[in-house]
Predict the structure.
Amino acid sequence: MNKHVSPRMNRRAFVIGSAALGTGLAIGLDIPFGGPTVVRAADGSPEVNAWVVIRPDDTVVIRVARSEMGQGSLTGLAQLVAEELECDWSKVTTEYPTPGQSVARKRVWGDFSTGGSRGIRTSQEYVRKGGATARLMLIQAAADEWKVPASECTVANGVITHKASGRTTTYGKVAEAAAKLTPPAEVKLKDPKDWTIAGKGLLRLDTADKTTGAMVYGIDVKLPGMLNAAIKDCPVFGGKVKSFDEAKVAGMKGVKKVVKVGDSAVAVVADTWWHAKTALEALPIVWDEGDNAKVSSESIAKWLTEGLDNEQPAYVGNKNGDAKAAIAGAAKKIEAVYNYPYQNHATMEPMNATALYTADKCEVWCGTQNGEAAFAAVLEASGLSADKCDVHKLMLGGGFGRRGMTDYVRQAVEIAKQMPGTPVKLLWSREEDMTHGKYHPVTQCKLTGAFDANNNLVALHYRLSGQSILFSLRPEALQNGMDPAAFQGVAQSGEAVFGYSVPNLLIEHSMRNPHVPPGFWRGVNVNHNAIYMECFMDELAHAAGQDPLEFRRKLMGNHPKHLAVLNAVAEKIGWSKPAPQGVYRGIAQVMGYASYVAGAAEISVIDGTKIKVHRIVASTDPGYIVNPAQVERQIAGSFVYGLSALFYGGCTVKDGRIEQTNFDTYNSMRINEMPKVEAVMVPSGGFWGGVGEPTIGVAAPAVLNAYFAATGKRIRSVPLRDQNITFA
Amino acid sequence: MANLTINGKTFTLDVEPDTPLLWAIRENAGLTGTKYGCGIAQCGACTVHIDGVATRSCGVSVGEVAGKKITTIEGLASGDTLHKVQKAWIAQDVPQCGYCQSGMIMAVASLLNEKPKPTDADIDAAITNICRCGTFQQVREAIHTIASA
């Protein structure tokens, strides 16, 4: 197969076919798995069901509702459908349904949200059922044609065979008939042990176009008559536009219009984006910055430090015994204070969206991690009803959580609304993207551990102070004011459980919400919680005079899955044997997104300030693995993202605004700084965990613990650049 | 107006001489494979070849490249035959989101042109593009595969 001329990702839009159109788009149509009315793709090919379209030439079009942003879910989800469908993988292509189509069909494609490492794990069951149901219908159609029982027919690679009569046919030939059948009420899914397409490290379906420049990202959209917009939002979060002097730029080359966007931003619309940006920079804008202009990183840090005080109120997230009393009566105690800064997602492709608004229709083209959230933003900003709006999803130039937000979509619609009939592409400059992020939240943590006379850990008090993401973005998810997600990785139950047993434990959160908008940043709260807990575990081990691995193992007897990945990493890196001369090791483990992960690093340190990372080993138990090659890449990539944040990241606040404006002040690791990541995959089955995020949690603590082993110095503050520590 | 030679074709573009080459390529010539990442020549997403040399096109003005041969990602293949870097990228599944990969591929093609068998140190010195997905391991392995072919 020539992959160059056969891109495996089909970006052609499809529409609900003529048979359904008569009543089809009326609210209430529900064709979850086929049914007597044939629904057709744009080229007329029948939908066997919402997930599977089969063309007469046997091409299998698998619908994928979740978004591809590099993490590989597009391919993984297609593998799961194809596995149950028993089709020919070489004939598989994929297609995104639009959120508008899904809403019109009573959300037949379910959730579009692609965050929280949920892309595969929360949809795997129903997409596999989609594949299995389609398989049974296709076989039934062949059996009906041959007038034989379906039970006598078998299928492999999309070819149906009736052995007794020696007849064969293909999916493409029976798809039309299959689409008319009533779907079976129940289907049995394969045991993952029997997988032949899923579970394999197959090549991605979306690679070829990414090597030729042909892949269309949001920034690349071209529409007839399209104009381009550059935008500037008030640099101080919460501020407003007071005034701007349009006349100063009206005559500049290419400028078409200057528009206010919401109450806080101004955009210049021009023939090209370069003209729009040039004019925007020349546009005098007066801001009403408000009281937030008084806020700085120092004032935020002071406020958070106050939250570490036990007298201040806090939410309890995990507790057993009486930690405070046990600490008070302990033979020995140690205490440490850590902090973690704001981080910007810094996706390589800055935020952008293209909108076309008319009085009776509003369409948006963009990369989004959540098609339905983008759709809702279009509805709200346009004021039009759901049947008059849609969102066309494109490849994302990185997401990492940022593109789950819809601020850029709303802005694009608000601009387009002021220019009805003209498509407008809004693109943020890198500077706008850096200073108007949805930042990884800022926190501090005071940890106190207490030992009995035999150096057994008897109490641990983990007092977190800082920002809640849910408070800002999903207040309805707070529980009596408490943000349960704040305890990711140190929680009592759920998908991010604390992996140690400590007789007296208190984990609590003093919530303090500065004005800087927080967001879900790859790994979310696991990032800082894992640094705090895993670095402090190292401190405790050191205080007890014990090996950091052995110290942890003793506390993990009740957490066999946590322990298994830790052991896997320890074995792979050779923890029981000495490291090479001048090389030092650190280790860490955490649970997040229902997966168990551990990491270990080997580093050397020059003059206390130059770190060379020689080796990284990381293990994960996500239950099941759909594509090991992609899991390996996600693990390695999560370390690049996590270590970039550790060494180079950190967004600081001055006069109410973010100080870092581009990659010169918010740098990212390069190839020379990143060693190979040796991935150890130990899927134990029985549950479905996430992949994209969990391992980021162990990246920073593994390196920080190795730094202590090398230097005897604890680093309790991120980023390292603030301490003049960098890569060797 | 400016005449630019891109991928062997002459484009007469309505563009001011101080316009960054990146934007002339993307918006005026309509070749969107070359990506905008930072605008300050830090990230390398906009890397093209100017007279065969890998160059960050956001940091070069249209006026500076008059008469020079510009090659973008769209012009790297010879007709239907992909460049060896593109072939290796597909065979080894190098891209994740892929947004930085046009620039990465152009930088690697230039390196291999100068040093057909680069060492790890050569790669470290020459390939300074940012990839936020972090597909560095695959980049390095694919370069070595090409070099050993």
